[in-house]
Design brief:
- The structure is a single chain.
- With 351 residues, this protein is an alpha+beta fold.
- Among the domains are: 77 residues, no CATH class; 166 residues, Rieske [2Fe-2S] iron-sulphur domain (Rieske Iron-sulfur Protein, 3-layer Sandwich), CATH 2.102.10.
- The chain has a 4-stranded antiparallel β-sheet with strand order 3-4-5-6. The chain has a 4-stranded antiparallel β-sheet with strand order 7-8-9-10, with no helix packed on it. A two-stranded antiparallel sheet has the order 1-2.
- A hairpin with a 4-residue loop joins strand 7 and strand 8.
- The longest helix has 31 residues.
- The termini are far apart.
Length: 351
């Protein structure tokens, strides 16, 4: 057998493509590429039209069970990228130069001496460990390593039981006609008079039942320890006062107007972002926009908590408020939709 280097066989003869020898076919391929790029441009324009046409969260805004906004934006952007990719490939295959080019490649392998030293060190390590002649150790090691995957599966139980309908309700609904649930300042638990707030004021709030459960017929043990944190995480609220003329009343889940959900320009919304559940309270006073610091989702508190920017897919849930006989702000009833981010069991358009 030969021991010297193999002779360079050279490159095969170049095969001319139809577009290389026929100007008509070359022009046709050029037009095809241009059409593909044009279709990409049309898809991009369609993306922009869809962005400004389809509103987020309207019940009519559904295509095949999916949000029309999501479907339209995803489809048009996907087609825009697809047409560019196909156009570039077609351009390369039909029109770009296709002569093969070769260059010398220097060996990247280590020297024979280095390779021998590395192999010998590995062999010595295996021999010294005795894993080859001690099957008991080898098999028990493999069994132990294999079982390490089970804790990850078992720890899934720490996620707890399915919440059922617990995410649909908060303690705000525990108020009664005789004792409507008061809105109190978070941390100091003082009730709030409508006259306490000036235009532009934003207040972080909680339900009074977390501090005075007996007033609402609630067992105090239900608002202690972990239960207290659960209630606070779901019931956290923000109040914002604005000019009443700036408010655009939306519709409740039952289709009725939210015109009576405010008090002298004071609106109440869940403090929990509908994207991934971050607490939010960064207020843009002149626009009534509330910004989430985690991923910059922005909600318009003058327009039913509508999403105006960012990844959040649903408006902030609004709480209907009024005043009691003493003039303190109270909740009319619970939120009419689940608070926080979406979850599997929830209808995306449930309001």
């Amino acid at each position: 057998m030969p021991t010297g280097p193999i002779a360079d066989p050279g490159l095969p003869d170049h095969q001319w493509r139809p577009t290389d020898v026929d100007p008509a076919k070359e022009k046709r391929a050029e037009r095809q590429v241009a059409i593909l790029f044009g279709l990409s441009a049309v898809s991009t324009v369609a993306f922009l039209v869809a962005y400004f046409t389809f509103d987020i969260g309207d019940n009519w805004d559904v295509i095949g069970g999916f949000g029309a906004s999501t479907m339209a934006l995803g489809l048009t952007l996907g087609l825009a990228l697809l047409f560019i990719g196909v156009g570039v490939i077609h351009w390369a295959r039909k029109l770009m130069a296709d002569h093969e080019i070769s260059e010398l490649r220097h060996p990247a392998r280590s020297s024979d001496d280095d390779r021998e030293v590395a192999v010998q060190a590995l062999t010595d390590g295996i021999n010294e460990s005795g894993i080859g002649r001690r099957p008991l150790i080898r098999n028990s090691l493999l069994g132990a390593v294999g079982l390490l995957g089970l804790p990850a599966i078992v720890m899934l139980r720490d996620l707890g039981p399915l919440p059922g309908k617990k995410l649909y309700h908060t303690i705000w609904g525990s108020g009664t006609k005789q004792a409507p649930m008061r809105i109190v300042r978070d941390g100091i638990w003082t009730p709030i008079l409508a006259s306490d707030l000036e235009i532009g004021d934003l207040v972080n709030c909680q339900p009074d039942a977390l501090h005075n459960p007996e007033r609402y017929g609630i067992d105090p043990s239900e608002v202690e320890g972990v239960n207290l944190q659960i209630h606070k995480s779901k019931a956290s609220l923000i109040l914002l006062r604005m000019n009443p003329g700036d408010i655009k009343p939306g519709k409740a889940a039952d289709g009725s107007s939210r015109a009576n959900w405010t008090v002298d320009g004071i609106v109440a919304y869940s403090k929990i972002c509908t994207h991934v559940g971050c607490p939010i309270s960064l207020n843009e006073r002149t626009t009534h926009h509330l910004l989430c610091p985690c991923h910059q989702s922005t909600f318009d508190l003058a327009d039913s908590g509508r999403v105006v920017f960012g990844p959040a897919g649903r408006p902030l849930p609004q709480l209907a408020i009024s005043v009691d006989d003493e003039g303190y702000l109270v909740a009319q009833h619970d939120f009419d939709e689940p608070v926080g981010p979406s979850f599997w069991e929830r209808d995306y358009y449930e309001r």
